[in-house]
Sequence to fold (261 residues):
Amino acid sequence: MSTETGGMWRLHRTEAAGGTRAVRLTRDRLALAAGLAAPFLVALALVPFRTDLSYTNAALVLVVVVVAVAALGSRIAGVLGAVSAAAWFDFFLTRPYETFDITASADIETAVLLLVVGVIVSQLAARARRLEIVTVTDADHLARIHGTAALARSANSADTVVDHVRRELTDLLGLRACRFEYGTLIGRPPRLQKDGSVTGATTWPQGEIELRAYGNGHYLGRFMLTAGPGPVPPLQARLVAVTLADQTGTALDTAGPVREG
Fold:
């Protein structure tokens, strides 16, 4: 590939990534607006039927609205929708109507359950949405995950898995360098998070980025990633990187106490 062609290819990838982020930001903003407005509008639409509709059924209708908001947006949008649903359920659908007072204990329980269930379900819906985004459709990414899983099951040493994943991350993310640190955390470099974002940075940092490996909920080490000269790795690649780090953590946890170094 010529230098000019390679430069144009990187430019197109960068523009595409920027467009994807813009679309995602717009969708999240719309979801936040929907989290406020949709429960209000649905509760208002139920007003003509509130004398015939049981409180439980009305609450279930509003839970469906919260799930829809969370599925389209973020966790924050889902929680906002749950709070909004509980508030408008109280205002429009429980006696005394058009006030934020509830006199019956059963109605209070329903309102509280609507809020709690709405928050929980919104978290699950948002997670499902994220997992849908993370769905690995690239055969190369899928091969990396399966290959690492197979190696983790068969390798006699966790170090073998660490070295394998270090090479995979270098290729996957286009890194200039990648090393693994066992033991205690030192310093506070930007961190590649579970959702593919990087703490403390709005762009892909040029210095070292840490990618932590956990086993059974315990910190066991971290990959230190040095970004290469190419564009920001796409979200799917970053999420695959997180999966590879998790597989490393599982291998280290299975192998027993890790060494310091």
About this structure: The longest strand covers residues 218-227.
